[in-house]
Design goal:
- By secondary structure, the chain is α+β, with helices and mostly antiparallel strands.
- It has six helices and 16 strands.
- Strands 2-3-4-1-5-8-7-6 form an eight-stranded mixed β-sheet. The chain has an eight-stranded mixed β-sheet with strand order 10-11-12-9-13-16-15-14.
- The radius of gyration is 18 Å and the shape is globular.
């Protein structure tokens, strides 16, 4: 069992138009943090959807730079979940822990972004992160994040949502070979995959699980939902636990959402390239 890494910290949703994405997720009943702007070298900005212990980051390119070439190349293909981020209790120790298991990582980096606090004061959210050198499965890009100033990220007032969202409930990942992809992810997290009833493979993370499945299995979970726009492999569904399902239904009304045994599901065209599932 890993000591310095545990659980999904957040999911990064790459979007073409940050303002439009913020408005779209607000219509879905989320409260969004004010826009954060990264360094000029990064050329990116974000809006975060803060949940109780984790969150969703909407990320957009504000100006083309050398450091955001990969984001721009990805956006030329589609919007959607571009990275899954693991929680690092200690980034340096977490990277060393993975290295000891034969999982190569890139050097730890530190960065920050300014934050306006509820009282109008200024703060800085600071992080230390490291990326895995290789994706454990096609389309599954991972990095780990240590929060040095959590009080500047989980800001009071931002964790209350009209749709009653509380936490990430899971991420479904498309894979040509779910068993192989789950085994590779399990190696990273030091956890054994488990089969679900429909043959999908589940990997516990210590928080929201990752579920690996084929396109046919995904379609079977969301019958009748328009799945066009999803990647052939990689993260496809972002599931959010809500306290009041009726509130989520009201927020998603008119957006092509469908209810089923896997919860209320919003199609990719209404959720910027991913299936959004309320559970």
């Amino acid at each position: 069992m890993l000591t310095h890494l545990g659980g999904i910290d957040h999911a990064v949703v790459l979007v073409r138009n940050l303002d439009a994405a913020a408005a779209g997720f607000a219509r879905l009943g989320f409260t969004l943090a004010p826009r954060g702007t990264h360094s000029p070298e990064m050329g990116t900005g974000n809006h975060c959807i803060m949940l109780r212990t984790d969150y969703v980051e909407l990320l957009g390119v504000l100006a083309p730079t050398e450091r955001n070439i990969r984001w721009r190349e990805a956006l030329a293909e589609r919007e959607g979940i571009s990275n899954i981020v693991l929680r690092a209790r200690d980034a340096e120790a977490g990277a060393a822990e993975l290295a000891a298991r034969g999982v190569a990582t890139l050097p730890v980096q530190g960065f920050g972004r300014p934050v306006t606090m509820p009282d109008g004061g200024a703060a800085e959210a600071r992080f230390r992160i490291f990326h895995l050198a290789e994706a454990p499965a096609p389309g599954l890009n991972l990095f780990a994040c240590e929060h040095l100033t959590p009080e500047a990220t989980w800001v009071p007032g931002l964790m209350e949502h009209p749709n009653t969202a509380e936490a990430l409930a899971g991420i479904e990942v498309l894979a040509a070979d779910p068993a192989s992809a789950a085994k590779a992810m399990g190696r990273v997290l030091d956890r054994a995959p488990e089969a679900e009833a429909d043959g999908a493979m589940r990997v516990e993370t210590g928080a929201a699980p990752l579920v690996f499945l084929t396109g046919l299995q995904l379609a079977g979970r969301y019958p009748g939902l328009d799945l066009s726009g999803l990647p052939p492999e990689g993260p496809a569904t972002l599931a959010v636990r809500v306290a009041n399902p009726s509130a989520a239904v009201r927020c998603a009304a008119g957006l092509g959402a469908m209810e089923g045994r896997f919860g209320l599901a919003v199609p990719p065209r209404a959720a910027h390239g991913l299936i959004l599932a309320f559970r």
